[in-house]
Amino acid sequence: MNNSFYIAWRYLQFHWGKTLLLILSISLVIFIPLGLNHLVNKGSEDLMARAEKTPLLVGAPGSETELSLSSLYFNKPKNQPVMFREVEKIKEQQLGKPIPLNIEYQVKEQPIVGTTPDYFEFRDLSLAEGRKMAILGECVLGAEAARKLNAQVGSSIISSPSGAFDVAGSFPLKMNIVGILEETGTSDDEAVFTDIKTSWVISGKAHGHQDLQQVENDSLLLAKDETQAVASPAVLSYTEITPENINSFHFHGDPGDYPVNAIIVEPKDRKSALMLRGRYENEQSSVQMLVPEKVISELVGTMISVRDLLILAGVIIGIACLAILAFVFALSIKLRKAELQTMKHIGASRNFIGSVLGLEIGLVLLSAIIVSGILTLIMGNFGIPLIEKLIS
Amino acid sequence: MKKTSLILAFLICLVACKDKEKENNTTEPVSEETQESPVVYVSNYPLYYFAEEIGGEAIDLRFPASGETDPSGWVAGAETILNMQQADLVIINGATFEKWRNNVTLEEANILNTTQGLDDRLLPLGEKFTHSHGEGGEHTHEGTASITWLDLELAIAQAEKVKNAFQELLPGKREEFQQNFQDLKQSLTDLDSNYDKLEVDPEKFQLIYSHPVYQYLQNAYSLKGESLHWEPGDAWNKDKKHEIEHLAKKGKKTYLIWEDEPAKETKEGLEEMGVHSIVVNPVFGQPENLDFQEVIFKNLQNLQKIKE
């Protein structure tokens, strides 16, 4: 047995190119259905886990999938925002705790999530260093966001314009980093959390500027009396909130009209959840309430159907590949007729020759199984973040 | 050697036990206090006074803006806000008094707005301020008058909300809080009826206010008058003289109501013009040596001089 293993090994070593090609082809045939199955199962579990932890979601009418994915994964919302008064309305009903999310803006590639301190409690997020935000203009970073932005507690980051043509639409606000969260392995790691009011400052709904009643410079004022000051466009809003200018920040209009991209609702109990859903269904207003678990489970259902089809295709391709492989091995034996004859002439028995050939095939198959296992493991570790990135 | 080691071990044990005993003695009262005294923050002095009168020692009362002359313009520090986030209750005046409220992160559930639900009794600031800048276009700052406690009926309503919140926090002290509130209500009602007795005939007297902060006082006790934007420390000058000449009506005795004692020069200048100065402290910040009711009583005494 040792001799036949040695000859088989030496043969494969000598024809390393052919051997490598065979191993790779077989491992891919095994890996495609196996890896796909693993990936979809793991992805579905992760998607469902975050959705299951988000009981109810309120947003503008439109695609339920878009609303769920943007609220769970903080990708740029495509649905219209709802008004902040919806948050007050839910609060007044006393059936659950509303947590507003404003996810319109970014710092480079990282989403800014304007919310309330309740979000940290709701997602069970704890701080790795620093503290929670307390003052307008402060932010807390997810672990991954801190790494990508190369930011530390005590430093600052600047919000980016919301689009290429929005140079003057939103305010590039310098925000102070006061805390960094523990890594959670979820999309919270990627986010820049700030108070919802700070996100309104970025959007320009709230701003701070010089006290126009105190302005002496005539070039900044077009007209002024006791009750009215018409300032020239030269009076610009502050782009950084400091203790010196913080009290000059003010909100225009009714904050109830301010935008909120989504509202997570944490109902008191099952009955409260049903009552809330019933009220929103009956109202048929300009907002919708949905159960993310239901929406994501439909999405996962579609993913599983596609997976099943792909696995079936993979299995059929695999069977065809194995038939081709059998043919390749048979041809190879034919091509090696002279070599096998020589082995017979120098005294090798028929069984010995058979065991050499069998071991050659066995070693190739075993190597291919090991390679496909490694590929599946790699896919399990790095494939999900890749898919989440693709989704967002 | 063995004996020495045993004695040493005994001494270490003794010291350790004493330390532990000491530690227990120091931690016990703290835990008792935290168990029994809910932490309550207030945003201005009148609320501090009401909370202290109603809650007494049962409440761990904190007034972070106590050092400010005008707590409405308090600039909140991050550490204080973090402590406020942990508090059992944050009592605010509302009616746009807390200019800092939009600048901080506080959980709404812990906030008691003492003027919430009293919207129909709130008054406008009486001033619109319109401005435009940048690319944003023109917009108006129209505020609500916030010195609500100068109308003592409103002050009682605010105190009642404080009482209700305390009763929810500590149901075991319900009766005590109710009694304390009744006592406070009684003295404020007495003061209110004395204010009601102020009869300032607008045909005979003209009132001018140094600042537009007396809207509730004017409205509740028929003490109407026009408002200036003068500070008690301002120097007397031509512009001020001109303003008074412009405002003062002939045939009426004119009184200028100040937030604090005006500068001597200003007071004399006004007297020369026949305008008498009266101090009505709006109780923005914590008064020195006096409490809320004493200041309100002193204000009443000063206003009674109008009739003299």
From TrEMBL, chain A:
Lineage: Bacteria, Pseudomonadati, Bacteroidota, Flavobacteriia, Flavobacteriales
Residues annotated as domain MacB-like periplasmic core: 85-216
Membrane-traversing stretches: 20-40, 309-332, 352-379
Domain of life, per lineage: Bacteria
Protein name: ABC transporter permease
Keyword field contains Protease: no
Transmembrane keyword on record: yes
InterPro entries on file: ABC-4/HrtB_transporter, MacB_PCD
Keyword vocabulary terms for this entry: Membrane, Transmembrane, Transmembrane helix
Organism: Christiangramia oceanisediminis
Pfam family, one: MacB_PCD
From TrEMBL, chain B:
Record's keyword annotation contains Transport: yes
Keywords associated with the record: Coiled coil, Signal, Transport
Coiled-coil stretches noted in the UniProt entry, renumbered to this chain: 174-201
GO biological process: metal ion transport
Taxonomic superkingdom: Bacteria
TM annotation in the entry: none
Listed GO MF terms: metal ion binding
UniProt key word Coiled coil: yes
Gene3D superfamilies in the record: Nitrogenase molybdenum iron protein domain
Residues of the signal peptide: none
Pfam families from the UniProt entry: ZnuA
Similarity remark: Belongs to the bacterial solute-binding protein 9 family.
Protein known as: Metal ABC transporter substrate-binding protein
Organism of derivation: Christiangramia oceanisediminis
